Every structure is written in C-alpha cells, then in structure tokens.
Amino acid sequence: MFSLAMRSIRQRPGRFAATLLSAFLGATIIMMFNSLLDTAGADGVDDVSSESLSTAAMVVGGYGSLLVFFAVASTLTVAVRQRTTEIDLLRSTGATPAQITRMIVGEAAVVGLVGSLLAIVPGMLGGRILLDMFQDSGQVADDVDHAFGTIALMSGIDITLLASVGAAFLAVRRATRAREQRAPRRRLRTWGGYAALGLGAALCVTGFAMGDAGPEAMAPPAYGAILLSVGFAAFSPALLGGLLRLTGGLLTAFGGGSGYLTVHGLRQRAAQLSGVLMPMVLFVGISVATLYMQSVENDHIEAAGLTQSVDDKNLETLNFVVVGIIAVFACVMLINTLYAATSYRSREFGQQRLAGATPGQVLAGVGLEGLLLTLTGVFFGTLAAVAGVVPFTVARTDDVLPSAGYGIWLAVVGVAAAATMATALGTARRVLRTPAVETVALAA
Amino acid sequence: MFGRNGRRGTAAGAVDGGAPHEALRLVKVTKVYGTGGAEEAAVTALDGVTLSLPAGSFTAVMGPSGSGKSTLLQCAAGLDRPDSGVVMVDGAEMTGGSETELTKFRRERIGFVFQQYNLLPTLNVAQNTVLPLKLAGRRVDRARVREVLARVGLADRMRHRPDQLSGGQRQRVAIARALVAAPSVVFADEPTGALDTRSARDVLGLLQETVRVDGRTVVMVTHDPVAASYADSVLFLADGRLVGQLNAPTADAVAERMTHLGDMYEAEGPHRAPHHDPRNSAPMGV
Ligand SMILES: Nc1ncnc2c1ncn2[C@@H]1O[C@H](COP(=O)(O)OP(=O)(O)OP(=O)(O)O)[C@@H](O)[C@H]1O
Ligand SMILES: [Mg+2]
Predict the structure, then answer these.
(1) Which residues, at least 6 apart from A336, have a Cβ–Cβ distance to it below 8 Å?
(2) Distance CA A194, CA A167 (A)
(3) Are strands B233-238 and B241-247 parallel, antiparallel or unpaired?
(4) Ramachandran assignment for B48, one of left (phi > 0), alpha (psi -120 to 50 degrees), beta (any other)
(5) What is the domain partition of chain B in residue ranges?
(6) Which of B97, B217, B120, B221 is nearest to B174 (CA)?
(7) How far apart are CA A321 and CA A318, in angstroms?
(8) DSSP class per residue in B189-252
(9) B80/A355 Cβ within 8 A
(10) Secondary structure string (H, E, C) spanning chain A
(11) How far is CA B259 from CA B223, B225, B254, in A?
(12) Among A169, B22, B87, B108, whose Cα sits 20 to 30 Å from the Cα of A380?
C-alpha cells in the first residue's frame, strides 16, 4: 500500500500541490522561528541575547507553530475529503479500510516530509533575517551567529508531519467508515472543539492577571485567541447552518436560482466548509488580536509617561513583522484551501450547468457562498480576537477596549473578504471554462 | 407541465401551419474534434448530418461505439457547438452564441437525460426536480411537482437524496427533471445503459408515455435493440454519418441491421475503426 501511495503521488503531482504548499510554508515558518532557539543555545552567546531570542522563539514561535499545525491539518482534511469518490472506488474494488488508510496516510506522510525537507533552506534564510532584525533592534549582540540545529529541524519536521498525518488519518477514517457510522467523528470533533474553547478561554482569562509582565504578557491571550479560533472553526458548520436558516428564505427569494443553489448546496456541505473556515477564522483572529494588543502596548508605554525609545520602536517593528509573517501565512492557507476546495467542484458546477444554470448563475452562487463564509469566518475570528484583546487591555490600561478604533479590524476584514471572494470567484471562473459535458464525464 | 388539457403554446417563432409540426431539424451539422493540436489527428465526429423529426415522435439513434451518437445529441441539445450546420428546435434556430445564450435557449425547449443521471448530490429528489424551474426563475407549483414525481413513481421519495436511491430511481428523477419544464424535445443518451432490465423497462415506458400522452418528441441513443424497439423509428449512425433508418422497429430487425452495419463499418472504415472514446473509459486512476 505504501508503494501504491508513492505511485499515486507520482502520477498526479498536481493534486498534491495544495498540501505540499501548506506543508512547505508551515515547516518554513516553524523552522525559521525555532532556529532562534538553536541560536540562543549555541556556545558563547551572552545571557541577554539568549534570553531575548528564547523569549521570541517561545512566544511567537510557539503560537506560530500551533497555528501552522491547525492550518496544515485543515488543508489536509479538505484534500482527503475531496477523494471520497476514489476511496469509494477502491473500497468497491476490494481494498480494506486499513489498506486505504495506509495509502492516504502514507501519501500525507510523504508530502509532509518532502514539504519539510524543502523548507530547510528557506527556513535557514528566514531565521537569519529574523536574527538580523533582532540585532538591529539591539536585543541581541551583534557577534551572535545564526545557528540552524536540531531544534529547528526536528520541530519543523515533527509538527508538519504530525499535522499532515494526523489530519489525513482522521479524514480517511471518516471516509472509509460507512455512512451509518458518522457518530464517532462528530463526537471527536465536538470534544476537540470544547477542549479548544475551554483551554482558549482559560488562557485568555490568565491575561487579566499579567498586567506587570513584559511584552510576553501578550502570549497567553494570543495562544488563547488561536485556540478559540480553532474551537470556533470546529463548531462553525453549526453556525453556518444557523445563518442559512436565518437568511435562507431571503436568499432564495431574492437570490433567484443562484440563491437556491447556494442555500441547498451549503446546507449539505456545511461540515466540509469548516476546513476552509479554519484558516479564515485563524487569520482574522490572530491578526486582529495581535495588532490590537500591540496598539494597547503602545498606549501603555505612553500612559506610563515614557516616550517610545528607539528600542521600543524597533520592538514594535519586530512585532509587526513577526505578526505579519504569521498573518500572511494564514491568509495564504486560506487562499490555498479555498482554491483546492473550489477547483474540486468542477463536476458539481457542470451538473448545475447541465440542469440549466448559466455560468453567471454558477458564479453568483459561488459569490454568495463566499459572502456567507466570510461573514461566518469574520464573526468567529472577531469573537476569538476580542476574547484575547480584552483581558490584555484590562491588564495593561484602565480601559476595557483598546483605543485604536475600528480601522485595524476593518482592514483585516477587508483582506479576508477580498482573499475569499477573489479566490472563490477566480477559481470558479477558471473551472467554468471547461465545457459542462466534459466536467461531468471526467470523474465518472 | 404534463398538460393533458390542450396543446402546448407555440414557442417564439414556431410554425404551427404545416402539418406535421417539426420538432427538430439538423442541416449539414458537422463537428470535428482535435483540430487545434498538432500532435493529435482531427476526428470528424459528425460529418454533415441532416435530419428532421416531427413533433410527437420517438426516435432511437444507434451505431457502433465512436460513431458520433453522443456528439449528435449534444450538438442538437445545445450542450456542444457544432462547427458548421444549422440546428433548429421547435422552429427556432439555435445560434452558436455564448453559453448563457445557449442555456437560455435550452431551458425553453430542451430536456436532457444522461446515462450517469447527473443529479445534484446535495439536493433531494424534489429539489433536483424543480431545479430547472428555479434556475429559469419560473414559479414552482408544488402540486405540479408532486404530479410529475407521482408520474415517475417517486412521490413518496421526495425528501430522499440521490445517494439514497437505486440507479433506476435516480434515472426516473432525472426524467422528471427533464420533463418538469415541459420541453418540446427530450434527449436521452443511453438512459438505460447503467440499469437492469426491469428498471430499463420502467424508464423506456416513461419516455414512451411522454411521447404518446404529452406529445413530446424524444430522441434516445441506445446500444440495446430491445430499447430501440420502444421507438417509432431508429436512425443508424456510422462514422459520423446517417446510414439508414428503420421504421416501426422490432428488436430482431434492429439487431439484424446492427450486425449488418458492423460489417459495413468494418469494411468501409478501417482507417478509424478502434476509436477510444475517453469519456466512456474510467479515468479514475489510483
Ligand atoms: N471531447 C472530445 N475530444 C476529442 N474527441 C472526442 C471528444 N468527444 C468525442 N470525441 C470523438 O468523437 C467520436 C464520436 O464520439 P461520440 O462520443 O459521439 O461516440 P458515440 O457514438 O457516442 O460512442 P459510444 O457509443 O461509445 O458512446 C469518437 O471518435 C470520439 O473519440
Ligand atoms: Mg456516447
């Protein structure tokens, strides 16, 4: 079965592009941050430098890794779910569930490993650039050399592999179980979701108590926001369902044929869409949370009657760069996952067209769906971010909400909406270029 | 929709004067695949096909694999654009415009039934059936939908999704969907190709009924002489050309003619004999 996995990858490399990209980017980010730990641990590094490097790697690298883990896992989940037809076919040709599981998980392992190996060089370069920035901001002595050692390498490979293989295993287990056995997966998802929400809420609450700690006080609420995002993403199908119940009548009444397609398609696919929602919620949650926390930190410095020193300024820039990297990663994952999920739907679009939908109606349906996805993602992402930002704000200032206003939020939401709509519509347009009759014949 | 009372109103530009009313006309329709690619030899799937079918007729199209039957149906139904020639449905000429224009043309006049059903997996039986009406922005009359589904014997399955139905039941839903908008011509490409004998008989009976009772025109591709015998006449296609016609066919006569056609085909066209139709193979690679 492992040879089957290898053959499957060799024959259709394109199909693995999305998962490979996510494994590669994820591993790059983890290696980049964790190489700072290697650097800090090297011989002859002074205590101050070592301290700043470790803190940064623990704090940012820590929640960066957590985010990478869930983003890679959600891409893998979407990718495996797309292969239900193939899995059904294999089952009907006599493959046992165990054989199919070994094949899919084997593929995921190969892709995760290749992605991590490819990430080594970019991870090294990225780590070096990060170190330069720390040195420029004066937090690390200039004579410290960048090191890329076992911590960077192993954490990069391990986390990426664990996310790919774990997600593939859970997704394929669901696919190989007959329809009647859906309950176990639901339960796992529900419990996982509750666990993430509970842990996330707990971390956010500890933020209240961390008023006097340094900038690393940001870490628990930031972790909390990520975990809450993950938990919300697990429950998002239910919310999407609720949103549909609320707006369904309206959409079918005013959305015409497209509204009809969207409402009824989404209702059935709500569970699958959580794979797309996960990166969106993470993107909105982590971007909004950290950007507002930084603004609160600035307010705090100001309120303490200090002017921002050059070091503070540098620290701020560094924070923005680091958050930027993570936000860009989440956004790329959102695009990547949505692209994979949409291009997979060519057959479905073909069937809609054969049933009498014009290309415009199909596109309008995809657009409506993107809008509902964005609404859900933004709602949950914002909720997670607020849960992280409020404790931090209370701890650092006399207010409950940051004074920065809605600008940051609007900008983040704008990026999420633009990425979602552009990806969904762009991909659908490309898919619609194939004649409808061909798209339905391909997967027959 | 299944109006037993009175005739269907004439579609825009339809002629009602001359009897019998013409439902489908093809004039010198040609379709060539693979002209662009240098490495691939061009395949003439349709080679100047001209035909005319009266309203209320049931026609079967037969011919060897790769003879162009599916291409003929798709060109006639506006699912594919012929390279040259004229297609007229219900007196209106199909112009080779955009997909949107073709779709709107089809909505008014054409129903299509596929071998692989092509129902939307996320919609239930009732939703699949009314989809063409919803997409065309037409009013959906619940009683009518129930009537259509009762006609195909699925009134008690309205809330089931396609994956909860047998192949025969799915094909009956597909027929209900093709009929719901009251098209003048219904095309069916091997509608019984994936069905057992009994389900196939049900499906053929339904198609026959739409012709006899509702006066619709049905064009059906089939490989099965028994299925063809349900039709009023059989058109034989070989090498993209019409090579014969059989009226009031019996299964034996059709089978006999097909064997003969096979001989002729092998004798005449060795240069393009073993066509591999990519759409009939299972590309489901592992
Ligand atoms: N999209 C396509 N691209 C290239 N060639 C095609 C395409 N579709 C059909 N052909 C070719 O056109 C010819 C006619 O195909 P068509 O599908 O109409 O045959 P058919 O009579 O329906 O065969 P079958 O009985 O096997 O379904 C064949 O030689 C086929 O290989
Ligand atoms: Mg065919």
Answers:
(1) A18, A21, A22, A75, A279
(2) 18
(3) antiparallel
(4) left
(5) 7-268
(6) B120
(7) 5
(8) ESTTTTS-HHHHHHHHHHHHHHHHTT--EEEEE-S-HHHHTTSSEEEEEETTEEEEEEES--HH
(9) no
(10) CHHHHHHHHHHCHHHHHHHHHHHHHHHHHHHHHHHHHHHHHCCCCCHHHHHHHHHHHHHHHHHHHHHHHHHHHHHHHHHHHCCHHHHHHHHHCCCCHHHHHHHHHHHHHHHHHHHHHHHHHHHHHHHHHHHHHHHHCCCCCCCCCCCCCHHHHHHHHHHHHHHHHHHHHHHHHHHHCCHHHCHHHHHHHHHHHHHHHHHHHHHHHHHHHCCCCCHHHHHHHHHHHHHHHHHHHHHHHHHHHHHHHHHHHHHHHHCHHHHHHHHHHHHHHHHHHHHHHHHHHHHHHHHHHHHHHHHHHHHHHHHCCCCCCHHHHHHHHHHHHHHHHHHHHHHHHHHHHHHHHHHCCHHHHHHHHHCCCCHHHHHHHHHHHHHHHHHHHHHHHHHHHHHHHHHHHHHHCCCCCCCCCCHHHHHHHHHHHHHHHHHHHHHHHHHCCCCHHHHHHHCC
(11) 12, 11, 9
(12) A169
A chain contacts of residue B136, beta-carbon cutoff 8 Å: 257, 356
* Mean of the per-residue pLDDT values of chain A: 83
Residue spans of beta strands (DSSP E) within B74-175? 84-89, 92-93, 110-113
Q: Among all residues of chain B, which has the CA nearest to that of A1?
A: B286
Q: What is the amino acid identity at position A187?
A: R
To the nearest whole Å, the CA of B81 is away from the closest chain A CA by 10
Residues in chain B whose Cβ is within 8 Å of chain A? 74, 79-80, 99-100, 103-104, 106-107, 112, 114, 116, 118-123, 127-128, 131-132, 134-137, 161, 177, 181, 279, 282-286
Contact by Cβ (8 Å): B182, B191: no
pLDDT-derived band at A13 (thresholds 50, 70, 90) equals low
Residue A11 has its nearest CB partner, among B114, B135, B285, at B285
CA distance A111 to A18: 10
CATH code reported for the domain at B7-268: 3.40.50.300
| Residue % of chain B over a pLDDT of 70 | 82
Rank A209-218, B108-117, B260-269 by mean pLDDT and report only the highest: B108-117
Regarding pTM above 0.95, the answer is no
Give tens-digit pLDDT for B86-134: 999 999 999 878 899 999 999 989 999 998 899 998 889 999 999 999 8
> What is the C-alpha to C-alpha distance for residues A263 and B192, in angstroms, rounded to an integer?
32
Cα–Cα dist B73/B123, whole Å = 26
Instruction: Provide the pairing of β-strand B241-247 with B43-54.
Output: unpaired
Helix/strand/coil for B282: coil
- Residue B284's pLDDT band (cuts 50, 70, 90): very low
Buried/exposed code over A367-384 (b: 16+ C-beta within 10 A; e: otherwise): bbbbbbbbebbbbbbbbb
**How many Å lie between the centroid of ligand 1 and the Cα of residue A442?**
14
Listed residue (B72, B274, B85) closest to B189, CA to CA: B72
Q: Are A207 and A387 in contact (CB under 8 A)?
A: no
Average pLDDT of B15-24? 65
Asked if pLDDT for residue A286 goes beyond 70, the answer is yes
pLDDT in tens, A312-365: 666 677 777 777 887 888 888 899 889 888 888 888 899 999 999 999 999 999
pLDDT, tens only, A124-140: 999 999 888 888 877 78
Q: From ligand 1's centre to the CA of A444, what distance in Å? A: 15
